[in-house]
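Exercise 3.2. Students should predict the tertiary structure of the chain below and write it as structure tokens, then compare their answer with the key that follows.

Predict this chain's 3D structure.
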Amino acid sequence: MNGQIEPNLNHLKYFITAAETKNLYEAASLHRISQPAISLALKKLEEAFGIEILVRSKNRFKLTNEGEKLYQYAKEIFKRFEAIRDDLSKSVEEISGVMSLGTTMGVGPMLIQEKLVDFSKQYPKVNLKLSFGDLKTLYADLQSNRTELCVLMEDRVHPEFKRTVLHEGEFVAVIKNNKKSKTMKNNLYLTMDSPGVDEFLNEAKKKKSFQQELTNYQLHEVDNWEMIREMVRLSGGVGVLPDFMLEEGLEVVSELNVLASRLKYKVVLYHKGEHQLSRVGKAMVRGLVK
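Answer key:
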């Protein structure tokens, strides 16, 4: 501060090794850097503390009184760092118990799966329990404390729950990527999840051109997005899916995608509030939000 050179931790590390080996060449080799780099590091330390820390004699040297004090302080600093690292790693290991998370089949396995895997690796003593259901069931489970957290695709404010948006996107109309499927695309698959048949048709009614376009399709309401994707693969019909489910082998149907993309979505994390979360729950929230 105030124009002074701040000491560098790497320079302190080099200094400790040099002090213990009493040989600049050996210290440089141990840290896989050049001997001039070691010499420069020691010079920077002298400038930072305003002292002379060693008396040189060719490649060998001895510490001054101030250098000896700095050596002891430097060892203590790194000893404290090790203690901090051990303490923090223990605090991670000590997080244990049951983590109950409710979600839907489309969102859980497909959108937050990687984060759940990372959480399990970071907290191996936590027993992660996932429950799947529709919106009504999942809200009831959260309200009754059967689950501590809930991840859903919707955008409603519930005064009784804390709400955090994890992901935003839009829907896409897709078809199997081959010529044969394009001649069989008269089937249109929608799900009871958002957007449902009614929501899709309401959007279509806003523009007459889409009403005319939809007369070319036979509408089918399917239970979930995974099934829609399979129906598209097998029958060659058109499916409306969240954009995170667009994958190789599927392509966007431009004439319907203008309508589908008007349907936006948000994936939201709900819980009863920070003060009601367990230690495991707080760790899971950090993992999902990051």
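Discussion points: The first helix runs from residue 9 to 21. The chain has three domains: 9-92, 97-164+268-289, 168-265.
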